[in-house]
Structures are given as structure tokens and as C-alpha cells.
Known about the structure:
It comes from Nitrososphaera gargensis (strain Ga9.2). The chain is mostly helical. The chain has helices at about 5-10, 10-100, 110, 115-130, 135-295, 300-310.
Amino acid sequence: MTATTANNNPDDPNLKTLLDFKKAVLEEQKAGEKKIEDINNQLESVKKQIDEERIQLDELRSKLKQVNEEKDAEYPKFMELRNSLIEAKNQMRSLDDKVSPAAAKSRKERSDMHNLQKTLEQIERDIQTKKLSKDEERKLVARSKEIATKLHALKMMHKKEDQYRTMSTQYDQLKDQVNRIFKLKEEYGNKIGKLKASLDTLINQRESLYEERRKFIHTVREANAKLEMIETQLNAIAFKKSRMQAAEHRHRKQKEMDERRVARQEAIQERAKRDKEYQERWNALKEAALKKMSSGEKLTFDEMKLIFGDSASD
């Protein structure tokens, strides 16, 4: 098919339109596939981050579980020691009241156990060594009982104070430990809350990416379907063009054969015409030679050949 024929082909405008459309669809397909690839890369990153944060969340939950177990073990001890400390303090107040009303105002007498002990020993020695009247002895014995009672109360007070100080130290240590536990519990709880919020955001982001990818996959599939239809149309045009070219080729070959046949026929007819004209001329010359011979005239060699030859072809 010549360029002119191709340009005059009525299918050419449709072919150009299809090729332009195919180019546009291919660009759409390529853009969609590129977008899908970008989304897949984003999904991989988001999935990796989700996996990492889930691992962190599991680790924090495990730590929080350990802290809760420690709290369950230590907090009852703390409350028990706190109640014991309150009870010990109440007992000390009760002993204060028993020692003397003035003891609440001044701790000097309560703390001067050494002097009280010396006074008690001196009174006991006086009772044993001095000559005392019954009234004096009765007063010293009463005084001795009073001091002994006060001394015993002070000793009990000091013992309770020592116990209270020990318990108070244990309480402070346990309180620090409990505060540390609750601080860790709060810290892990806050971290877990933030991680869960972050995971919710990441999961929503992942779902959005899935939805966006589904849209582009649909777009690419539509582009593929369009390309298949375009290819079908292009193949149909190519087939039609090939069929037309084959028909034109056959027509051209047939025309050439017809022209050669006509030329051969014309050549045969021309030759037959020439042969006929040559035969007629030969016959005329022969007849003239025969007349000449009948009249007794002398014949030439060529005239003799005409008379005695077999045919004009000779």
C-alpha cells in the first residue's frame, strides 16, 4: 500500500484516535502501577512500625504485670506496717499519760532515766541502812514504788520509741518502695496508653492505605480492560488493512496477467495478419509467374521457385 493510499484510507483517522487513546491509557496504567508501588512501600513501613510497637506494648504489659504483682505483694505489707505504726504511736501516747501529766509538756524527766535509777538505788540503800521511823520508812517505800513505776514506764517508753523508730524506718523504706511501684505503674500505664493510641492511628492509616490501593488496583484493571479492547480494535484494523492489501495485490497480479494475455493475443493476431498478407502476396506472384510461363516468356529463378516451391513458407 502506498503512502497516498494509506493517507486516503478511511480507517486512518480511527487508527490515530485509537493510538492516541492507547497512549493515554498506558500513561494512566503506568501512573496507577507507580502509585500502587508507592502505597505498598508505605504499607511495608506502617506494618513494620505496627509490629515494632506491638512488641513494645507486649513488653510494657509484661513489665506492668510484674509491677502489679509486686504491688499486690508489697502494698498489704505497707498497710499492715502503717496500721502497726499508728498503733505503736497510740501506745506511746498512752504511756506518756501514765508517766505523768507533766510529761506531755516536758520530756526532760522521761529522758533522765539515769538520775531516776540513782535516786531509786539511794532510797533502797536508805531504807536498808538508815534508822527510820515508820512514817519515814513508809514515805520512802511509797517514793521508791513511785520512782520504780515511773522508771519502768520510762523504760517501756524508750523500748516503744526504739520499736517505733525501727518501724518508722521500715515504713519509710516500704513507703518509698510503694511510691516507686505506683510511679512505675503510672509510667507504664501512660506509655501503654500512648502506644495504644499510636497503634490505633497506625491501624487506621493502614486501612486507609488499603482502601486507596484498592481504588488504584481497580483503576489499573480498568486500564488493562481498555487496553485489551483497544488491542482488539487495532488487530481488527490491521487485519482489515492486510486483507485489503492482499486483495489489491491479487488485483494487480490479475491485471498484469490479463495485460500479458491480451498482448499475446494481439501478437498472435498480428502475426496471423502478416502471414495472411504474405500468403496473398505469394499467391499473386505465383499466379503472375504461371501466366508468364504459359505465355512462353522466360522465367527468373525466383519465379521458378514460386511456381515449383511447396508453399509460401519456403
